[in-house]
Design brief:
Elements: H1 8-12, E1 21-23, H2 35-39, E2 41-43, H3 48-70, H4 75-78, H5 85-97, H6 100-106, H7 112-138, H8 144-180
Amino acid sequence: MKVTSFSAQTYLVSNKVDQDLAVKDSKTPEKLTDKSFFDEVTISQGAQLRVVQENLGVEIARELDSSLANLGLSLDTAGQMDWSPESVADRIFSFTTSFFGTYRAQNPELSDEEAINGFEELVRGATQRGYEQAMGALEGSEISEEVKPVAGETMEILMKKYDEYFNKLREQKAAADGQENVAADGNKLS
């Protein structure tokens, strides 16, 4: 899916002023956020809600752009990203599993096995809830039927990645436990 370059502000706010707005001195819609602009606009009956909605959209867009910028992201880069199920699963996997060290450090009382099991339960549960919320939000929309199979495939790939990751953590733990039980001369300790 190719997305053209845009920011949250240009995405959420239309580029034309509602026909119900009579604008003096050819002000642009971007001026809707300027308090002085409202003094120069004559609003016909029923258009006030539209102005409030557009203003709210501008403010939300600014916050979204700011938050994305703080993360080093923009909606411009979103259009250039690979949105295939494999790539989305990779990004979700990398993001979620990157917190294992933090989880381990915040739960020092847990054994290694308990930490792995607890983190796995946390990550899988959060991922499943996020998937269900996204599908619920799309329910009844036109894109819902297009997205469902892609989202389902993404979840299958992601769950396989989690299987591999948590199995590998368990294998590493078992290998480390085995090495702890071997004496310096290579003989197994009882």
